[in-house]
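Long-time lurker, finally posting.

We've been working with D-glycero-beta-D-manno-heptose-7-phosphate kinase (Zwartia hollandica) and I want a structural starting point before designing mutants. I don't trust myself to interpret raw outputs, so I'm hoping someone here can both generate the structure tokens and explain anything notable. Sequence follows.
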Amino acid sequence: MKPFPKAAIEKARVLVVGDVMLDRYWFGEVERISPEAPVPVVHVAKREDRLGGAANVARNAVALGAQVTLVGLVGQDEAATRVRSLLGEAGVQAHLVTDAHHPTTLKMRVLGRQQQLLRIDFEEKPTPALLESLAEHVAPLLAQHDVVVFSDYAKGALAQVEALIALARAKGLPILVDPKGSNYQRYRGATLVTPNRSEMQQAVGLWHSESELSERAQALRNELELEALLVTRSEQGMTLFTDAGSDHVDAQAHEVFDVSGAGDTVLATLAVMRAAGVPWAESMRWANRAGGIVVGKLGTSIVTAGELA
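Top reply, 14 upvotes:
Generated this for you. Predicted structure of D-glycero-beta-D-manno-heptose-7-phosphate kinase:
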């Protein structure tokens, strides 16, 4: 691999659009079982909030040194206040569409002895009016950026992603998508789509050999008019499919502690490298290295430019 392109990354401008979430962690000790029900009693000793979803993608891109703008949906609630505060601390330029009737997506996790015991989700699908407002925020920002990322967590912010992709294509921007669900026709016309192994199986079915995976991946890529398709395969590494064929790198993680947010780190690294002019194959290798670092950390975390370099 070539040296870390620090100077080019500092000039890179990345626009992230998608499902903004707050990840809330309650850490504690478990010393007994509740007399009320057969469940552990957690004595909470520490609380921590972290950016999740598209906000975590943006935070990761900033940590690598890029200039980052985030567009997403939040409510008028305590979680939205925390999201805005954390985005400000991270150095992300936030353009958040706010609605008092739309709660901020919140994932609350309870951990005992650093093992996740429970997760509670608060979320609602946005209204068509909110989605229209989101698109109105995105449109004028496109010309000010080098690449656009759509981070889809199926929470509804990208329910009309087809129209957003068309806007970005009209500006000639590279478009990276982290997909959800089995309907990949929604992402037609993007530049790169990054399904994980499970998501790829949802899209094309189970494969029984590398040649079968390659055949199905290339068929999907051609059908969706993609420049590249990157399948992240956990302990099996990553495989990139382009007109030139397939390119694979093995996983680099020495110890997997928590995979939460690893896909966000990979997506952010790909976007930053692309905005810095790095080819897809080399971008994949940087993303693979970043993913290997972040799974050794607890919860949704970041990889800094220093760690990656």
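Before you design anything, note these points.
Residues 191 and 226 are 5 Å apart (CA to CA).
The two ends are 11 Å apart (CA to CA).
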